[in-house]
């Protein structure tokens, strides 16, 4: 086996086995620090030995055995952990763990622990990416534009809170499961959104590593909870959104809005998979949740060969459904964008202006107003709305797009004109 093949095997093992190894260690020893460090040591040893010894027939078992030995060695070395030494399940490496059903998969226990509602949102995201996703501390820090030391402290504090609050390492009870799954999905959606359009001015506008990781972890939950409609809905939403990623930013580094995107550049395989998930959920006849409706909206968009072919009537109807589930101002804003295509920009602008008090600090509100005012020929007001949006814009791609759109209006006149 070549060095490249060995490296590929190690990379594949890291993607496939990291969460499983960490989760197994966390259950066995009851300590996330020990679990994380022992798993990391096992992969370091794999990098050292596999090029010489060869890739083992069962990489996951090899990594688990090695990590368990490292964890036991650490506990034995640290005299201050005598009590933990006695309490830990110091089973031999070849002792089988009790069989687990799909919903009892160790990785799912780990996900629920990382996303426990007692932890702050930022801590949940960081822990999930580190312990479940296997991202390094520098990778996580870079993704969220914080210093590596600060991110390390955030993760350390979160693990300490889990220990101090005695947060259980388990899948929630049946009655608590829906609410807790919702929290896990919210974390993964946050990771995906940060990757799809980064909020930081110094970040790459699109972070494929984060979108890919969010999709991978959502696939994992889909595998573990195959009957959960919102898990399927979130996966479909991510796939249909990710399918448009390569058309999202121009060669000049400027954001490309949906109507202007080259649809031939969209990923047909991801669209087919996402639309199939949407159809499967519709076929169940079960009332759809928020992610399922958002996925259905994206399915309508990705079904149109040209923006002029979009079934805006269906899009508005889906937003009407979503408003009943989530009557937030952001949903109302997105509905207004669709209404503009169906009933005209004047009707949509009236709806958008009613959201001013709630969304004045939200850049997309000003972007939407600018576009509607532009279409109505109210150039001076449109320029002011673009300026407000630029003051709140998150990254260079969006700034470039908004600047171009504003500058196309020409110099600001003393009165509104029809530019």
TrEMBL record:
<feature type="domain" description="DUF6596">
    <location>
        <begin position="180"/>
        <end position="280"/>
    </location>
</feature>
<comment type="similarity">
    <text>Belongs to the sigma-70 factor family. ECF subfamily.</text>
</comment>
<feature type="domain" description="RNA polymerase sigma-70 region 2">
    <location>
        <begin position="17"/>
        <end position="80"/>
    </location>
</feature>
<keyword id="KW-0804">Transcription</keyword>
<keyword id="KW-0805">Transcription regulation</keyword>
<dbReference type="InterPro" id="IPR011990">
    <property type="entry name" value="TPR-like_helical_dom_sf"/>
</dbReference>
<dbReference type="InterPro" id="IPR013249">
    <property type="entry name" value="RNA_pol_sigma70_r4_t2"/>
</dbReference>
<dbReference type="Pfam" id="PF20239">
    <property type="entry name" value="DUF6596"/>
</dbReference>
<dbReference type="InterPro" id="IPR013324">
    <property type="entry name" value="RNA_pol_sigma_r3/r4-like"/>
</dbReference>
<dbReference type="InterPro" id="IPR046531">
    <property type="entry name" value="DUF6596"/>
</dbReference>
<dbReference type="InterPro" id="IPR036388">
    <property type="entry name" value="WH-like_DNA-bd_sf"/>
</dbReference>
<protein>
    <submittedName>
        <fullName>Sigma factor-like helix-turn-helix DNA-binding protein</fullName>
    </submittedName>
</protein>
<dbReference type="Pfam" id="PF04542">
    <property type="entry name" value="Sigma70_r2"/>
</dbReference>
<dbReference type="InterPro" id="IPR013325">
    <property type="entry name" value="RNA_pol_sigma_r2"/>
</dbReference>
<keyword id="KW-0731">Sigma factor</keyword>
<feature type="domain" description="RNA polymerase sigma factor 70 region 4 type 2">
    <location>
        <begin position="111"/>
        <end position="162"/>
    </location>
</feature>
<dbReference type="Pfam" id="PF08281">
    <property type="entry name" value="Sigma70_r4_2"/>
</dbReference>
<dbReference type="InterPro" id="IPR007627">
    <property type="entry name" value="RNA_pol_sigma70_r2"/>
</dbReference>
